[in-house]
Design goal:
Layout (H helix, E strand, L loop, with lengths): L3 H24 L3 H34 L5 H24 L3 H33 L4 H12 L3
Helix pairs in contact: 1-2, 1-4, 2-3, 2-5, 3-4
Length: about 150
């Protein structure tokens, strides 16, 4: 059976793949391809963050009563990642690849640390506490992340 941990971790990998495409395009000196790949990455990551904030976190908080714990930390980190996404987009749009690469490095480090916390702490907690509602929660998450 699919779990929240496996489903959301798979989505982390999907976002990571788009991010890597942007880096690879820049490495090939193809700014337009980098902009396109970063656009896909930005859309996918923002959808992932919004899905967690709109569905997963509130469901977990309602079930556990924990509103000041891990979900609060994740929300703060989401805001920091959104700010870096916007800064990176601005740098790419301006054609400032050096600026982009610096921001992208900060974003990558933040995402790696964030994803580790979610995948090893929060998602297993969600699976444990939301086990009875797991099929319904997964269906909602899938609908939000994969609307086609």
């Amino acid at each position: 059976m699919t779990t929240i941990r496996t489903f959301m971790s798979d989505d982390h990998r999907r976002c990571d793949d788009y991010f890597a495409e942007a880096e690879q395009a820049l490495g090939n000196k193809n700014l337009e391809a980098a902009r396109a790949a970063f656009g896909h990455f930005r859309t996918a990551l923002r959808a992932h963050l919004e899905c967690e904030e709109k569905t997963l976190f509130p469901t977990f908080e309602a079930k556990t009563g924990m509103t000041m714990g891990p979900t609060q930390v994740m929300r703060m980190e989401h805001e920091q990642m959104r700010a870096l996404l916007d800064e990176a987009l601005g740098a790419l749009e301006a054609g400032d690849t050096d600026e982009y690469l610096g921001i992208a490095e900060s974003l990558l480090i933040m995402m790696q640390q964030h994803n580790m916390k979610e995948e090893n702490i929060l998602y297993p907690m969600c699976d444990q506490h939301l086990w009875a509602e797991l099929p319904a929660v997964l269906e909602r998450l899938e609908t939000e992340l994969c609307p086609e």
